[in-house]
Amino acid sequence: MSGAASVERVKDRATGLDKFVLREARGSSVEVYLYGGQVTFWKNNFGQQLLFVSNKATFKPRKAVRGGIQICFPQLGNHGVLEQHGFARNRFWSVDESPPPFPVATSNCHIDLILKSSPEDLKIWPHSYEFRLRVALTPRGDLILTSRIKNISSDSKPFQFTFAYHTYFSVSDISEVRVEGLETLDYLDNLQSRKRFTEQGDAVVFESEVDKVYLSAPPKVVVIDHEKKRTFVLRKEGLPDVVVWNPWDKKDEEYKSMLCVGAAAIEKPVTLKPGEEWIGKQEISAVPSSYSSGQLDPELIRRMHTI
Ligand SMILES: O=P(O)(O)OC[C@H]1O[C@@H](O)[C@H](O)[C@@H](O)[C@@H]1O
Question: Tens of pLDDT along 232-247?
Fold first, then answer.
C-alpha cells in the first residue's frame, strides 16, 4: 500500500452489515459492502459523495440496495428466468484472500471479493462459477471495478450470462445533464418492448423517463452535469453496451438527482466454456468541468487524455 492509503473492514453501525472502506492519501474514499459486492459511497478528495443512494434504501438482505453500483449478474433486467437484475446484488460475497494474479492494471488500494455458486443458487441457475470482483481506488480518486467470471463446471457445458455495473451517479438535476459518446448509436428501448432505434441527438438529454441499452458503445462515455460543474468519465473494457436509466416522476422526486449509466454486456450474452474466464472492467473519474458552447475545460481534456 502506498503513502497513507488504507483498506479497513468495519461493521456499519446503521445497517449492521460488514463493509470495507478504502481511503486514498489525498482524501478520496470508497465503501463497498459484502452484501451485493456493492459500492455505496465514492467520495472525492473533498468528501463529496459522487454516487446516489436513495433516502429510502434499505440495507436488508435480500432486498437490493437502491443506489451506488449494483452488480447485475447473471441477468440484466427481467428478460430471463431469474429475478430482476439477477441474484448477485442480493447475495453475501466473501473476501477473496488469495486471488489469482491480476491480468489488468488497477491500484494498490483495493479489495478483492468473490461470489461462488451456492447449492441454493444452483437450483435456479445450474452453473458452477467463480465471480471475482476487485474494487480499487486510485491515488487521484478514480474508482475501478474489475469483474472476472470463470466457468468452473466439471461437465462440458458452457453457460451464458448478461451483466451490468448499474451505476447510480449523483447529479444536480437530471434535466441539466447530458451524456456524450452515445450519439448515433443503436439502442434497445426498454419502454418500448426493447425495440431497436438509432439515437438522433448530438447528446443524450433528459426530459422524461429514459430506460435504454446503447449497443456497441465506444470505450469512453461522459456524463456532464452543468449545474454541479462536474463531469463523470466512464471507461470500459470487455463490456460493449451501456445502460442509461432515469425513472423521471415514476419514482420519488429524489430520483431527479440520479442518473444511472453503466457499462454492460446485454445484447450478446457472454458465453463461457468450462475453464474459460471473462473480464469486464469499468473505471470512473469525476472531474471538474465547465461546459459551454461545446467547450470542455482544459483540466477535463487533460484528464480525458491521461486516464
Ligand atoms: O428497481 P430495480 O430492480 O433496481 O431496477 C431499476 C431499473 O433498472 C433499469 O436497468 C431497468 O431497465 C428498469 O426497468 C428498472 O426499473
Answer: 999 999 999 999 999 9
Could you tell me if 176 and 225 are in contact, meaning their C-beta atoms sit under 8 angstroms apart?
A: yes
pLDDT at 1: 45
Residue-wise over 259-282: b if at least 16 C-beta within 10 A, else e? bbbbbbbbbeebebebeeebbbbb
Percent of the chain with pLDDT over 90: 87
- What residue's CA is closest to ligand 1, atom 3? 84
Say how many Å lie between the CA of residue 145 and the centre of ligand 1. Answer: 20
The CATH architecture annotation of domain 6-306 reads Distorted Sandwich (2.70)
Average pLDDT of the chain, as a whole number: 93
The residue extents of the domains of the chain are 6-306
User: pTM here?
Assistant: 0.94
Residue 297 is predicted with a pLDDT of: 53
Instruction: Give the neighbor-by-neighbor strand order of the sheet with 230-237.
Output: 94-95, 109-116, 129-137, 143-151, 277-288, 230-237, 220-225, 177-180, 204-205
Pocket of ligand 1 (CB under 6 A): 64, 77, 84-85, 190, 211, 243, 245
Q: Which residues sit in the known binding site? A: 66, 84, 89
